[in-house]
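Why does residue order matter? Because the sequence determines the fold. Keep that principle in mind as you read this record.
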Amino acid sequence: MSKMWLKMLGVGIVICVGGPALVQSIRPSDEELFKRYNPDLQKRSLEEGDRREKEFDEYVTKLKEWSKSDKSIWFAAQEMEEAKRVQQQAQRDQAKEEARLQREQMRKEMLGEK
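Structure:
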C-alpha cells in the first residue's frame, strides 16, 4: 500500500510542478508577441502605451483612495461616480444658462438696433 501512496505522491508532484513549468516554457514573452503584431498595430500600441499607462496609474490611485474609506470599495466608487455625474450635470446646466443669456443679449442688441 505504501508503494501506491509513493507513486501517487510522485505523480502529484510531477503534475503540480511540471504543468506550470511546461506552460511557462511555451508561453511567448511580451516582446515576442509584440514582434508578431502587424506594423500598424505596433505603431498604434507604441502611440497609445503612454496614455494607457497614465489611465492605469490614475485608476490605481483612485483604488487607493477608495480603499482608505470605511466603506466597501464598490460603494466608494459608486459615490465618486455619482459626485462626478452631479458635477457634469451642473456644468451642463451652467453652459445652458450662459447660452441662454447670450441669446437674450443678442436679441436685445437686435431689437435695439432696429
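DSSP finds four helices and no strands in the chain.
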